[in-house]
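Sequence design from tokenized structure. All designs in this work follow the same two-part layout: the structure record, then the generated sequence. An example of the structure record is given first.
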């Protein structure tokens, strides 16, 4: 019997089993879930994710090749961003994991500002954002959060809180003898704006992260001048920047679509 005939027989057996029991075999269920996941992302999103992963892998091989924790954090981070760009709460769960890994990586290079920011602010806010996103699905669709329109008063409060948080963190960073204190302090500000807007389910969260990516590209470029392996981290945040810009664009599309469907 040929392989084609065998596949046909297997398909008939699976179909007969489904008709008798009303349940699909595990193999079929797995293939169906995989197909649904692939169909969930557009061709542009698949290209964006694959090109980002490829860029991260190439830079790791060329400039690092040893710090697999950095590679793992980069891959988790870029995957988190593509889910967040879709308004999917799973992205926030991945962000929690990324924050833990990135905090440890920052600690190793004495970027205590980054360590404290991600472990003390980004990670807890990602947890709160995960809860908020899960509680506010769009039309009951748990894979898409309902976009929120932040008010002018909330925007003013956000900037006031950002100034206070930055002021407090500056003295903490000085006490820890943080490397490159100026960009590290600015990173606290941009990180706070990003996590606040993420919690509020605003499309502008992605612009907050994009600004933070620019600061981190500068920070890790400084680190790479001392240790070339950190070029892979620079490339990672360049990929993050592109993904965050896409997230900003897609969230505006989501807001327009959700607004039009409300009428």
């Amino acid at each position: 019997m040929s392989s084609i005939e065998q596949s046909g027989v297997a398909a008939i057996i699976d179909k007969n089993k489904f008709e008798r029991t009303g349940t699909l075999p595990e193999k079929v269920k797995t293939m169906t879930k995989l197909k649904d996941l692939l169909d969930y992302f557009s061709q542009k999103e698949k290209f964006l994710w694959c090109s980002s992963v490829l860029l991260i892998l190439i830079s790791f091989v060329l400039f690092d090749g040893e710090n697999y924790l950095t590679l793992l954090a980069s891959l988790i981070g870029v995957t988190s961003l593509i889910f967040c760009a879709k308004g999917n709460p799973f992205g926030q769960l991945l962000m929690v994991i990324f924050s833990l890994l990135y905090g440890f990586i920052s600690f190793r290079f004495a970027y205590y500002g980054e360590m404290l920011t991600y472990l003390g602010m980004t990670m807890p806010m990602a947890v709160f954002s995960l809860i908020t996103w899960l509680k506010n699905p769009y039309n009951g669709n748990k894979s898409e959060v309902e976009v929120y329109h932040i008010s002018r008063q909330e925007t003013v409060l956000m900037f006031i809180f950002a100034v206070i948080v930055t002021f407090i963190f500056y003295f903490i960073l000085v006490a820890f003898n943080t490397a490159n204190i100026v960009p590290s302090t600015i990173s606290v500000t941009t990180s706070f704006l990003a996590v606040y807007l993420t919690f509020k389910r605003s499309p502008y969260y992605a612009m907050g992260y994009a600004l933070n990516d620019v600061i981190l590209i500068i920070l890790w470029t400084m680190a790479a001048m001392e240790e070339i392996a950190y070029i892979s981290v620079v490339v990672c945040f360049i990929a993050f920047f592109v993904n965050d810009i896409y997230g900003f664009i897609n969230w505006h599309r989501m807001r327009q679509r959700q607004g039009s469907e409300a009428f």
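Confidence is low (pLDDT under 50) at residues 3-13. We note this feature because it recurs in several other targets discussed in the main text.
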